[in-house]
Amino acid sequence: MPWKSFLKNYFSFSRSERYGILGLCGCILLVIVIRLLLPHLIKNDIPDTTSFENEIALFRKSIDSAQVAKVQPVQYDIIREEREFFYFDPNHATDEEWVKLGLNNRQIQNIHNYLAKGGKFKRKEDFQKLYTIPATQYSVLEPYIRIPSSGASLKPAETAKVAPVTASEKEPVNVATTKYSEKKAIPIELNAADSSMLMQLSGIGPVLAARIIKYRTRIGGYAEVTQLGEVYGIKPELVEKLTPQLSIDKLLIRKMSINTATFKDLISHPYLNEQQTKGILNYKKLQGRINGLDELVRNNILTREDADRIEPYVSFE
Length: 317
Description:
Elements: H1 2-11, H2 15-41, H3 50-71, E1 82-86, H4 95-100, H5 105-116, H6 124-128, H7 135-141, H8 156-159, E2 161-166, E3 188-189, H9 195-198, H10 206-219, H11 236-242, E4 246-247, E5 256-257, H12 263-267, H13 274-287, H14 293-298, H15 304-310, E6 314-315
Parallel strand pairs: 3-4, 5-6
Antiparallel strand pairs: 1-2
C-alpha cells in the first residue's frame, strides 16, 4: 500500500545516519556520566574564614562603642578648675607642667602626637590650632606662652610659677595672688594694648579682653575711654573703675576716607546705619565730593550728634 511505503521511507535510516545517531547517543551518555562523577573528581575545599570573621566581630564591636559614645560622650574637654599659671614653651613642656596648666590627658596626648609627627609651635597662634584646645582655654594660656628664638631656651626666671588661680569657664581669672585679690592698677594705652595687657586690668578677663580688641578693630580705635561701655558685657561701673588706669592715643585711630569709601566700608562701621550710608553715597554721587561733616548735617543726612560721634573716624581726602 502507498502509505506503508511512505512510512517506511520516512522512518528508515541509511547506514551513515544510523552511525550518526549512535555517536550522538554516545556523546549524551558521556556527558551524563561526567556530570555524575564530577563532584567526586574535584575536591571542594572550604576556605578557613576564622580570621575574617574575627575582624568582622572587632569591626562591629567598634561600631557599637562609637554609638555608645554618641549617646554618652566622654568628657575629655573639661578644663581643670584648679590651675597654676607660669610661662611655658609648648615645644618642651613636660606632662607635669601641662597638668598644672589645666590640660587633660586627651589634650596632652594630642600635643605629643603633633610634636612626634614633626610639628613645631613657631608662634603663639599655632597652639590654638590644636583641635583639642578650645578658644576659651587658649585665651587663658596665651599670655603665658613663650616661644624662644631658634636655639634659645626659656630662662629659669621665665619658667617660675606666676600665680595659682581658680578659673571658671565663663570668665576665667588670669593672674591673682589669691582667689579674692585685686589686680594691680597700671596705666595702659587702650588702642595699642594686646589681650595680655588688658587682662592686667582689674575686672577684665580673657573674654572681655577679646571683645575690647574686636570692637576696637571694628570702629577703628577708641577716641574716649567711655566707649568701652559700648562693648558687650562691660557695665558703666566697670568703665568708671577702669578710666584712671587707661589712656588714649588718638593718633592710633584708623580713619576712613568718606570720598573713597564703598557701601561695605561705611555700613560696617557701628556709628553708621543703612539709611545714613545710602544718603552719604547718593550725596557724594550727586556732588562729586564731600568736604566735611557739616555738609552732611546741613543736608539732613547726619544729625549733629551722629556727626560728632563719627568725626574721629573719617577723613575727606
